[in-house]
Amino acid sequence: MRIIRLTMAQALVRAMAAQKTVVETDDGKTSVQPFFGGVWAIFGHGNVAGLGEALHGARDVLPTFRAHNEQAMAHAAIAYTKALRRRQVMACTSSIGPGALNMVTAAAVAHVNRLPLLLLPGDVFASRRPDPVLQQIEDWQDGTVSANDAFRPVSRYFDRITRPEQIIPAFARAMQVLTDPVECGPVTLGLCQDVQAEAYDFPASFFDEKIWTPRRPRPDGGELAAAVALLREAKRPFIVCGGGTLYAQAERDLAAFAESHGIPVGETQAGKSSLATDHPMNMGAIGVTGTAAANAMAAEADVVLAVGTRLQDFTTGSWALFQGEGRRIIGLNTQPFDAGKHQAQPLVADARAGLSELTAALGAWRTDAVWSEQAAAVKAAWYKTAATYTDAPVESGNALPSDAQVVGAVQRQSRPSDIVLCAAGGLPGELHKLWQAGAPGGYHMEYGFSCMGYEIAGGLGVKMAQPEREVFVMIGDGSYLMLNSEIATSVMIARKLILVILDNRGFGCINRLQQATGGAGFNNLLKDSRHEVMPEVDFALHARALGAVTEKVSDLAGLSQALERARASERTYAVVIDTDPLISTAAGGHWWDVAVPEVSVRSEVQAARADYVAALTRQFVGN
Asked: By the 8 A CB rule, do 235 and 302 touch?
């Protein structure tokens, strides 16, 4: 057996560089590409000497990128793989202690969204000779614990490398998880800092090129037959399209399936952009932030085909949306855990393979024309309603524009190839209802974990994955203040973003929820928070200090003109506009289960509690 003597860190980096993947373009062409698109690194004493030296030696075949915040670099890596349909991945390395723990939140984002991410935090000394080392967490009852144990609940696979040869089976297991459509998610390998630098005689086969072909599990015959029987009996079938549709590159299959069988479709946050907005069966967003069209059809459905979705509460209206008599659910998902949720008939399969075999088995079957006609009518009515919220008003009734009006202005300046990206707060609700995506992947929302601070870093990751497309990052002032450092990174590595910063002077979304549940405005808007002096943040000046071209506009017309200049710019461009924190799109949407206090001296809370108790009776008792 031929051997190569390397440090553990050098061996890991060489093995990573040898991993390749089969990538399929939208037109069906395939090519072999590096599986790891690069490594994000913020070096410290726990990784600079070992892994840092190894990455320097491989910088021509495995590029290393420097970020400004560990959580942000992991968000960028997550957005990168999401934009590339999980076919290519990035790794992130930090030092031990605070650097490592900064990545835990991002690991949870990847875990919830079923996205592959390789985390390589430095760890304590395996030898324990210098313990306690700088930034080491000491557990008085367990000598094996380190800060990196915090990654365990948010990792699909976790390992700590305490001997150099352990990297061989650990990396093999890591690659299985990162490439498996069922287990897919974050992997954490804690790299003990002394072990990173230790040498071992590695078998040369560990560094052989490995080409990973995306697996497409096909459905079981019995499950397929049961699903077909349910659909054939359905009078009012409905499809819920989740992110798994895009991960499987099944958007064409979904379009053909819905059109062939006359079944209306509602899109989750992760599934939005799977279908063209003008597809006759696309009813738009579903659930709490859904359109009136999708929710009306979903409420009457007797069979719901859930394709590649986790069926979380925002999708199901906290399980009060589906009210059809005798309703049944078919769970088409690669993950059995998701496929069988809420007493569903599971159809465990890849979305593309599952839809293909359903189509073949259903043959010429088509739902009643009345159901399809109803779908067309409610869709037409919804888009007339939606336009009243997004159209540029002749004379705005509000002093400041609403989020929806800003969305409309950005939409009118967009092109079909553009990507709009957002994460948390009120904007995801407005975008889910109102944004009209031009192409698959043109709507990028992190709403599985609804993580504030994802936006700018996520936009950077998307731009790295798809540099040929314009990326519009829509972000509120609250999220901007949480995590904005990667503006500087985008400028440094020449990955231009267009940032639309909406300043409503606080957490407007939660302020509205607070008042909707009977509470007084408190601690959300800046004016309602304890203060001696009201903050006056100059977001344009701040973004300019980080290297962006910036301007602040006073109205929607100015925003439109600024976006034209932003598109022409070669550098990250930030446009700031003040917005009204109290206005949101009243049409569409659905009830959401947010518990209201049972006892309160506030009459508003008492009234909200009565409404809440009444709403609970509509929840699906079969949960």
From this structure: yes
